[in-house]
Structure formats: C-alpha cells, structure tokens
Amino acid sequence: MSGLQTEFPFTLPKGYVDEDGTLHRTGVMRLACARDEIEPLRDGRVKENEAYATVIVLARVVTQLGTVSRITTKTIESLFVSDFSYLQDLYRIVNFQDPSILEALEPGTPFPRTSVEVG
C-alpha cells in the first residue's frame, strides 16, 4: 500500500536569484492544509490587496528553494514572474488535481494551460 505523497520536488523555469547573486532553481512544495489558506486572511497586506494571499500561501508551502535557509514572502516577491506563475500552477496541481501528471513533465518546463485550469 502506498502512502499519500505530501511533498513535491520542482525545478523553476528561471530560478530565484538571492542577494548574493546565487541562482536557486530546485525546491520542494508540500501539500497545503486549511490553515495555509486561512491564516493569510488575517494579514493586513491581504486586507489591502487580496492577491497578496497567494504570496503568503506560497511562502508557507514552499519548504525548500536551493540553499535558501528560510522561504519568506520577500523570497516569493523576488521571484521572476514566470517562476511565480509556475509555483501557482504547481500549487493548483498538487492540491486540487492529480499530481501524477507531474511525472510526465520535464523539470522546469511550464505546465500546459489546459491541464491546470481550475473550475
């Protein structure tokens, strides 16, 4: 019997460049729990701009990014737009769809738009 997969490795299309200029492309995202989506609603930044909730949620569920010691909202804010979009798509797939579709994709390639559309 196989257990539930709760962590998903990923490779960003471009990568996160830290303050020292080091490029980080590989990471791990864990499945979200209800608290990951509820807690950001209490944050003042979300009250000013609802879209900021996505930044907070991703900072909570991305558990590794290269050798970055701690993933924060600043880390997520500093991603290139293509990498931010990639993580949003990955979040939708692992939490709301069938994560087995990830096995068929090359690391770092964008997700097909048809496979990540959420009703």
What descriptors fit this protein?
single chain; 119 residues; alpha+beta; three-stranded antiparallel beta sheet; globular; disordered C terminus
Task: Give a quick precis of the structure.
This is Phage tail assembly protein. This protein is of the alpha+beta class. It has helices at 34-38, 44-48, 52-61, 73-77, 81-96, 113-116, and strands spanning 7-17, 23-30, 62-65.
Class by SSE composition: alpha+beta
Q: Helix amount, in percent?
A: 25-40%
Largest sheet, strands/sense/barrel: 3 strands, antiparallel
Order of helices and strands: EEHHHEHHH
Tell me the β content.
15-25%
Indicate the mean pLDDT.
88
Q: What ranges have pLDDT less than 50 throughout 5 or more consecutive residues? A: 114-119
Question: Given the C-alpha coordinates, what overall shape results?
Answer: globular
Count of individual helical segments: 6
Number of domains: 1
- Report the radius of gyration as a whole number of Å: 14 Å
Tell how many strands the DSSP assignment holds: 3
Major β-sheet strand ordering: 1-2-3
First-last Cα distance: 31 Å
Protein name: Phage tail assembly protein
Question: What are the SSEs and their pairings?
Answer:
Blueprint: E1 7-17, E2 23-30, H1 34-38, H2 44-48, H3 52-61, E3 62-65, H4 73-77, H5 81-96, H6 113-116
Antiparallel strand pairs: 1-2, 2-3
